[in-house]
Amino acid sequence: MLQTFVFIIGAGVIALVLLDQLALWMQRRGWIRWRKPTAPATGGGGMTGLLTEFQQLVEPQVRHVIEDKEGRRLGRLIVSADGRDKRPTSSDE
Asked: Could you give the CA distance from residue 52 to residue 45 in angstroms, rounded to a whole number?
């Protein structure tokens, strides 16, 4: 009787582990979401851009603050008028 009970519990644990591994495999293929959720999206989507443009329309003095935040987010990449990218030197900051 005890051996049957232990066997049923062991078989249940093995079945759950196999089911978990199957679900993780399906998550890697992109079919489902399982234990490890995907990272949340950053940036806020399209509504953030719309609200930023509205704020620039209402308060033009905040434009330099928004440009500075975008520059920091993009790693301060500067595109010159001729299209060449350059990083700022220590004297530019």
From this structure: 12
